[in-house]
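Run folding on both entries below.
>entry_1
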Amino acid sequence: MPESSTTKAASTSSLVTAPFLILLSPPRSFSSVVSTMIGQHPELYGFPELHLFIGDTVQEMLDREYRAGNHFGPSGLLRTIAQLEFGHQTRATIAHAIAWLNERKLWSTRDLMEHLRMRVAPRIGIEKSPITALRPLDLERTWVFYPKAYFLHLTRHPVSTSRSMDLFLQQRSRSDKQRPFNNLLSWYRFHHNILSFTRSLPPGQSMMVKGEDILSDPDRYLAQIAEWLGVRTDDAAIAAMKHPEYSPYAYYGPTPANGGNDSNFMRNPVFRPGRVKEPSLKDFLAREAIEWISPQERESLATAGYALAESSALTQDVTALAHRLGYH
């Protein structure tokens, strides 16, 4: 018999005691391939983008998704519900997942997250939704819900991120005038939020890693992440992590929930080993005309807690943060 909308997903006595990994990154930062690779570890389970930390309740989360054009809810969440509750992902089970989710609008998003974690226990769940790092409030919510979670800060070179965002927008026929923010400013704001958040965590609770390093030397860096999480680091476990294509979320899902991961990744999710080159930030900034931040934007950033120098250009602030993250 289906549960009523007032039924709680997880009582205080039945909360999942296994660790939890939350991956934080801006969009276009290798988060789909990296989180899916990590999630193929025998002791881990990689969820697609769930978007559960953008609201206190399921209803609040769905309202934000609706305003963003996702009328049925996050694709990754619907695919996860279809997979875990109904055994597989088809158009029919996605329809069941939509109904299942709507019956639970009164749940807190933490209740729903706990329910999904219990469905994959004893494996450690991995949540990766770049939208979580868009607002400091949503990052704070992750800590309120999961004060003992592991937080993996995933980075990518600002130039590569900007170019990837341009390609993403072009694929959706969006012009520059339609962009809600400058790509580099977006990169800066996301990482600023994440660093401000992780700075307050106890030592050992967060780890920062370059996506380029993981993809260039997976044996080394995947083993480091596994050791940090306290799970197996043997050759078989690391080898399993190099097969993201085995994830049930590695390919496009059924309509109307075909997303949940990066579209380029889902077109061909097989890991292709090789050195990932990092472009020159200095050369890029010398060629590109990067707009100065307007007084209005600077005031808005200051109100939101972004400490940009009074007379500096965006290029100076991006350069300083890039150097802090190990990019040049």
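>entry_2
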Amino acid sequence: MAVIPVALAGRPYEVHVARDLIGNAAAQARAFIRKERVAVVADANARRFHGARLEASLAAAGIGVDWHELAPGEGAKSWDGLRALVDWLLEREVERGDHVFALGGGVTGDLTGFACAILKRGCGFVQIPTTLLAQVDSSVGGKTAINTAAGKNLVGAFHQPSLVLADLGALDTLPDREMRAGYAEVIKYGILGDAAFFDWLAANGTAVLAREPAALEHAVATSVAAKARIVAEDERETTGARALLNLGHTFGHALEAETGFSDRLLHGEGVALGMVLAARYSARRGLIAPADAERVAEAIATVGLPARLPDLGLDCDGTRLADHMRHDKKMDAGTLPFILLRGVGEAFLARDVELADVAAFLDEELAR
């Protein structure tokens, strides 16, 4: 088992990466269970595939489970979903010293974490991410949020979990498309700050997606360690270091908005194409060689992720896509920072990007 510390001052916690952590959850998380029953928030798919193992583990330790089940999908991350969850937790008389368990993907973790951030001004929670994307990204770092009519993740809080159990066995039930979407966040760590990891993934990405045990554990543990380092350096995204984790997201969120935040384009797919666009835009500005931008595109296309904007079949122009970016939560004094590249493994925060130029670039990409 890999154990990765997230070294936050006064609030350190660990991410455990191994198989069968759900079946051993009572022992792993015993320090965070104070009562005879624990509240577990799970989406319907996660409960169907993994709920019985979690419940059996806790039952063997004399602990019962109360379930709050969510419908799968982004729709759960809403005001209505938040209100229903908070009311349920209050009805269960969850106290500030208690921990709520989140079993599922990023939606479950984001919603549960936000509810725990505001419930009685903050109670604890334990993340049990069941998707690759959640294991390497959203379960670590304490960003919690819901979506609103104005955009994605615009209402939320920083609220760190007390423990993350990344059970690699949970990925056995994950559809291949969801695995690829999660892999986008894995390769992101190589592109933004670890050229050697990028090269390793270029050679071993198919093994990771095939869930080969050694390759999968190395990919997840390396990704978590990379995020843990950045979060420890810049927990609340004030110095610019944590902003690097948004590589591909500004473009990706615009694409998600244009496709209605639907299954037409999964979040990880949007990030994958967003990283290709960030690399090509960096090349257009003369920051990296065009060949490096194409290395990024090839590594993403090779594993079956979208790497060409025309393939999405969008009925819009670059200006419309750029307009979606105006609602990005990273807007600061009317300026939107972009994460660009000086090379594979060397991302930086650019504050001099004009959205009109981005729109012109996207028109070029739509015509490729």
